[in-house]
Design brief:
The structure is a homodimer of 295-residue chains. Chain A has 295 residues and is α/β, with parallel strands linked by helices. The first copy, chain A, folds into 2 domains: 106 residues, 2-keto-3-deoxy-galactonokinase, substrate binding domain (Nucleotidyltransferase, domain 5, 2-Layer Sandwich); 114 residues, Nucleotidyltransferase, domain 5, CATH 3.30.420. The first copy, chain A, is 36% helix and 23% strand.
Chain lengths: 295, 295
């Protein structure tokens, strides 16, 4: 079978043998927003047409390709969801020359009943679930960080935190950017920000400190971005780990540098970060492929 | 004496009789950033030159006119500060034809030792302090909301919350704006946002709900701005009132519509909002004028 992780900005494809071994892999900067004229059939043929010609007849796709802006919208399935449920609800895409199925996204609600959605992460999470024994807390840091709870191989629920996007908006579009130079990184200022998140006053007040500390020569301007990053990540981690016992393990999945920073924040706040190595989108596509008998 | 409240975007001037009665008042859109070539002496003469010619010889100025970008920088004084202290530390500005004094801003620290500054608000607060008996909690909502504690006529401390500016940045520079139409106002969506601020998950998670609630048809897109506004104001008010007993009074000073929304949030969270009527910058300038014997 062919496995494809098709996101907003890029696409990756694998040709899998019967045991799920990736015989070939390729990637392209052809995310769903970059497909000319939204002609996904054409883009799909351009990406894996040679594999089809060589006899592959089945393709399993996950990610934003199943969104309203993608090839065909695959309605969200309710949580909890495991590979067997997703396998039953794959969306078939009519295509001359191959059987194509899209993995649906998931919809759930947080503890207060406010909706949560994911699309693409469900496949990564199911790939990871298998590797960590089926149960655990997972954090996928990024523009919109997702925290998910896995139980006995199923995705029970998730919460989204706008941490990366709020950082960018505060830095580029508020007064904070004026006294901020250089990139955000780790180090003492990042740790100061993480620890600040637990003090009284709340995020809207804490953020202003990234200005006043520089204004009154208590922090160098080239440390302010790291401080603000630590502050926001600290607020995210504190909120997302409410209810977890001290010392609990959190699985971090994402870009290496970002996971390092989240690992540092988790350690400062009394949790144990794990960074399991693997390509979890591919692993999840394999698991769903197995569930429908394609592997 | 002449009293002048000279801010970033506008300036207001009063001609006060010996009892502090405002015989004349005028205003101009000539904030410190709008003064041509930074020639503040020229702008001052343009504003009140006729009063000087008629015999006024003393002018007391407050606001951003005393900042590094203003006429002359008046160094911040430490909190706590009362009118007598400020009166001792006024900054004299050399000017041919009048005695000019600028009220300094204040510097303090929040409960965790992070610096806080104000410039202009100290004069409003001292004017208000007199009117409310010298002691109380004051909120000045806005782009950067300030909460101040007054005790026996002195400003004890303050905290700043970036609520208004964060709202603008989230609305205009994050994905939240895409599913948001129309202005922010009061009403049920605002109240929902205020109450949401007390649920688990934290602000970075709660903000994302302004998207998912619309995405899943749980909220109309023309209500999303009010919801986000309520959410941010709710977070601010909860954090700023930590330590206040339930039912405590909060004095609101600022634009009428914004104070109405803050009053609604305070009521929802169990506090009593007061909106004392008055021109507190003028009242504060009067009090300092009295302390230096100009009135």
């Amino acid at each position: 079978m062919i496995a494809i992780d098709w996101g907003t900005s890029s696409v990756r494809a694998w040709r899998l043998g019967p045991e799920g071994v990736a015989a070939e892999a390729r990637a392209a900067p052809l995310g769903i927003m970059a497909v000319p004229d939204g002609d996904f059939a054409e883009a799909f043929t351009g990406l894996v047409g040679d594999w089809l010609a060589e006899g592959e007849g089945r393709a399993l796709l996950s990610g934003m390709i199943g969104s309203r802006q993608g090839w065909r919208e695959a309605p969200y399935l309710p949580c909890p969801a495991d590979p067997a449920l997703l396998a039953q609800q794959l969306l078939a895409v009519p295509f001359d020359g191959a059987e194509i199925r899209i993995v649906p996204g998931l919809v759930g609600a947080d503890a207060s009943g406010v909706p949560e959605v994911m699309r693409g992460e469900e496949t990564q999470l199911l790939g990871l679930a298998h590797a960590i024994g089926g149960t655990g807390t997972v954090c996928l840091p990024g523009t919109h960080s997702k925290w998910a709870t896995l139980k006995e191989g199923a995705i029970v629920g998730s919460t989204t935190h706008m941490t990366g996007e709020v950082f960018a908006a505060l830095r580029s579009h508020t007064i904070l950017g004026r006294l901020m130079s250089g990139p955000a990184g780790g180090g003492p200022a990042f740790a100061d920000g993480v620890l600040r998140s637990g003090q009284p006053g709340g995020l809207l007040h804490h953020a202003f400190g990234a200005r006043t500390l520089v204004l009154l020569d208590r922090m160098a301007s080239d440390q302010a971005a790291s401080y603000l990053s630590g502050l926001l990540i600290g607020h995210e981690v504190r909120s997302a780990t409410e209810g977890l016992p001290a010392g609990a393990a959190v699985q971090l999945v994402g870009a290496a540098e970002l996971c390092t920073h989240y690992g540092e924040a988790l350690a400062l706040l009394g949790f144990v970060a794990h960074g399991p190595e693997g390509d979890w989108a591919l692993a999840g596509l394999r698991r769903i492929g197995e569930a429908i008998g394609w592997l």
